[in-house]
Amino acid sequence: MSPKGRPTQDKRDKRFEIRLSAETYKTLEECAEKLDITKAEVIHKGIAMVKEKLDEK
Questions:
Q1: Which residue stretches of 2-38 are H helix?
Q2: Does residue 36 come out as left (phi exceeding 0), alpha (psi in the -120 to 50 range) or beta?
Q3: Distance between the two ends of the chain, CA-based, in angstroms?
Q4: Residue 36 DSSP code
Q5: How far is it, in rounded angstroms, from Cα 37 to Cα 21?
Q6: What share of the chain is helix, strand, coil (3-state, %, to 5)?
Q7: Neighbours of 12 (CB within 10 A)
Q8: Tens digits of per-residue pLDDT, 27-48?
């Protein structure tokens, strides 16, 4: 049986579930739409931005 999904060096095998308010979810959707990326990718970019800011300190 072949693996599913696109091949990648950045294996995403960890799952994390969160609950969002309707307002936060709408903001997430708007960001994804404007950037033409998935909601998951918006979250990944947000985590990277926070890490970058922390590393500056």
A1: 22-35
A2: left
A3: 47
A4: T
A5: 21
A6: 55, 0, 45
A7: 9
A8: 999 999 999 999 999 999 999 9
